[in-house]
Amino acid sequence: MIQAPDISWSYTLPEPCAPLSAEQTESYRARIKALLKEKNAVLVAHYYTDPEIQALAEETGGYVADSLEMARLGRDHPASTLVVAGVRFMGETAKILSPEKRVVMPALDAECSLDLSCPVDEFSDFCDQHPDHTVVVYANTSAAVKARADWVVTSSIALEIVDHLESEGQKIIWGPDIHLGRYIQQQTGAEMVLWRGRCIVHDEFKASAIAELRKQYPDSALLVHPESPEDVVAMADAVGSTSQLIKAASELPNKQLIIATERGIFYKIQQLCPDKELMAAPTGGTGATCQSCAHCPWMGMNSLQRICEALESGDSSHEIEVDAEIREKALVPLNRMLDFSASLKAQGKI
Ligand code: 13P
Ligand code: SF4
Questions:
Q1: Which end of the chain is more exposed for a tag (fewer CB within 10 A), N or C?
Q2: 254 alpha carbon to ligand 1 midpoint, in Å?
Q3: Which tens digits make up the pLDDT trace of 193-214?
Q4: pLDDT of 6 strictly over 80
């Protein structure tokens, strides 16, 4: 049986942003609103960013979305500057899809442990050793890894794409998230070799501690992002990407929801379901190390102050650039995903 190499990674986590006073918050909000107009810019934020960033995106005609929608909405918006509040791969994806636009980010060093756990040279060597496999990579990767792939997927569309590849009898190299890969493999029955990356946020949810919490709230439903460990996914009432979990939160009849994903998502769920009680799934329990406690430290690098700085800066300190050759190659599997998703939408399948 083919196995991905066993590489161990360690990460230097960023310091959290200093909290702002109410006065500072108001002043940055006003400044950002003016700058967005002045610079013909739009704010595109991920569901995991802080609530005040999501609220500002909504108030200013921007978007709050999952990683697939962020890419599409940024591309299709007429603004000449995209301010991407999220982590670096999201800014790079926006730039790959919209090379003519200026793409700025509050923090260019907002990483993702999945991206970091998939260095292009090691991954590419591994793919070279198995040329009979189709290379499918998660969007949470560098532009260079995307350039090496046949397909890019996000968690919103991964099941459908792998199902399609499986129906064609293709063997797959999947990278980088091992938990999401295993989940997709189990759901589709596809032949998949899994890279061994992990999300430091989702990897920490603990099945035993969640089971204890469910005893206290027997009428609650459990919502799980599939980057979580297998035993946590197995307990879930709903499994899915951020947007799929938000939908499930609205549709499930349960008044209490235990949520195993980054806690920034609470903002949108609470907005749509004001009468529901939301609880963060525990990351404690035997063997817990809790580096993140359901909060992505890199998503936390986005702040109103840094959004303001990104809009004010005219230099490269906040601007995303992608090498032209890599961009051209990465665009192919990204467009494959977007076209596939658009065709499923047109058929009413998603
Ligand atoms: P989505 O693709 O569901 O937005 O998730 C991105 C992510 O980083 C999950 O941890
Ligand atoms: Fe990456 Fe995990 Fe943060 Fe998502 S939550 S951006 S997968 S480290």
A1: N
A2: 24
A3: 999 999 999 999 999 999 999 9
A4: no
Which sequence spans correspond to the domains of the chain? 22-110+299-319, 114-198+329-346, 202-280
Residue whose CB lies within 8 A of the most ligand 1 atoms, among 64, 111, 152, 154, for a mutation test: 154
Confidence of residue 177 (pLDDT cuts 50, 70, 90): very high
- Residue 9 — pLDDT band, cuts 50, 70, 90? confident
Q: Report residue 304 as tokens.
A: 């109103």
**More confident of the two residues 315 and 149:** 149
Q: Could you give the CA distance from residue 239 to residue 223 in angstroms, rounded to a whole number?
A: 6
CA distances from 221 to 209, 243, 275, 281 (A): 15, 17, 15, 11
Q: Identify whether the C-beta of residue 230 lies closer than 8 Å to the C-beta of residue 252.
A: no
For residues 330 and 137, the answer to whether their CB atoms sit within 8 Å is no
* Closest listed residue to residue 277, CA positions, set 235, 212, 220, 205: 220
The 3-state DSSP class for residue 64 equals strand
The count of other CB atoms within 10 Å of the CB of residue 292 is 22
CATH of span 22-110+299-319: 3.40.50.10800
- Domain 202-280 fold: Rossmann fold (3.40.50)
Ligand 2 centroid to 140 CA: how many Å? 8
Task: Give distance in angstroms: CA of 84 to centre of ligand 2.
Answer: 15
Q: Does 202-280 match 22-110+299-319 at the fold level?
A: yes
Strand-pair partners of 118 = none
Are 211 and 124 in contact by the 8 Å Cβ rule? The answer is no
Q: Is 301 in the pocket of ligand 2 (CB under 6 A)?
A: no
HSE, side-chain direction, 13 A CA sphere, residue 18: 4
Superfamily holding 114-198+329-346: NadA-like (3.40.50.10800)
The CA distance from 122 to 38, in Å, is 44
39-77 per-position pLDDT tens digit: 999 999 999 999 999 999 999 999 999 988 998 999 999
